[in-house]
Write a structure and sequence with these properties.
CATH topology of the largest domain: Rossmann fold
Number of helices: 7
CATH class of the largest domain: Alpha Beta
Bound molecules: ribulose-5-phosphate
Radius of gyration: 17 Å
Number of strands: 14
CATH architecture of the largest domain: 3-Layer(aba) Sandwich
Oligomer: single chain
Order of helices and strands: HEHEHEHEEEHEEHEEHEEEE
Strand content: 25-35%
Shape: globular
Structural class: alpha/beta
Largest sheet: 7 strands, mixed
Strand order of the largest sheet: 3-2-1-4-7-13-14
Distance between the termini: 28 Å
């Protein structure tokens, strides 16, 4: 099965947790786009969605789903998002699409977080995928030096500005054996908006689509 097909399978499996009338938190990326398509095909009708990016906002509006402001909705019942890497403890690296900050805010605001991935995203230890770090432009060089001090090799993402007007440093070679500690440590550097480790607030349930069906890691 192609990776695109597996993403659709993971997206479809998440529908089990969605009821008409809900306000959903919505992540960013091709798996989330597949989820929005599956949601529409299922006939379920949301009260609205809180979006993690301008890209997802466009997709939601095209699908006729009202986009709501998190400041008005308050806490959400359910957040659906993809990931770039997932470990056995449902800790994630996210931000390949550059939407990590809004994604982390919505995950934090949500009672339940369902992560949808194809099996290529599963790893034993996080860190093969370069860790995205969103930084305010003024702090780019300072933060890069601090990341080198932590053992990382940061690289500025070319021609990319986040929806928040910031830059992304993609960091290789960090030791992520203790992702909770590293997530906190990087976030302490002045000028860092957030980093793409979702370890302090991992997913509650990961739906992993593979050749033999959808594996459920965790529970709601
Ligand atoms: C965006 C993300 C995405 O969830 C991640 O990049 C996975 O994307 P895709 O579903 O296209 O594989 O974190 O910031």
């Amino acid at each position: 099965m192609s990776q695109a097909r597996l993403k659709i399978e993971a997206a479809r499996a998440a529908l089990e947790y969605v009821e008409s009338g809900m306000v959903l938190g919505m992540g960013t990326g091709s798996t989330v786009n597949a989820f929005i398509d599956e949601l529409i095909s299922s006939g379920r009708s949301l009260a609205g969605a809180v979006s993690s990016s301008e890209a997802t906002t466009g997709k939601l509006r095209e699908a006729g789903i009202e986009v709501l402001d998190l400041n008005h909705t308050g806490g959400l019942e359910l957040y659906i998002d993809g990931a770039d890497e997932v470990d056995a403890h449902r800790r994630l690296i996210k931000g390949g699409g550059g939407a990590l900050t809004r994604e982390k805010v919505i995950a934090e605001a949500s009672r339940r977080f369902v992560c949808i991935v194809d099996e290529s995203k599963c790893v034993n230890v996080l860190g093969d995928f370069p860790l995205p770090v969103e930084v305010v432009p003024l702090a780019r060089a300072l933060v890069a030096r601090k990341l080198v001090g932590l053992g990382g090799r940061p690289e500025l993402r070319n021609d990319f500005v986040t929806d928040n007007g910031n830059l992304i440093l993609d960091v290789r070679k960090l030791d992520l054996v203790d992702p909770v500690a590293v997530e906190g440590e990087i976030n302490q550097i002045p000028g860092v908006v957030t980093n793409g480790l979702f370890a302090r607030r991992p997913a509650d349930l990961v739906l992993v689509a593979g050749e033999r069906g959808v594996e459920r890691r965790g529970r709601l």
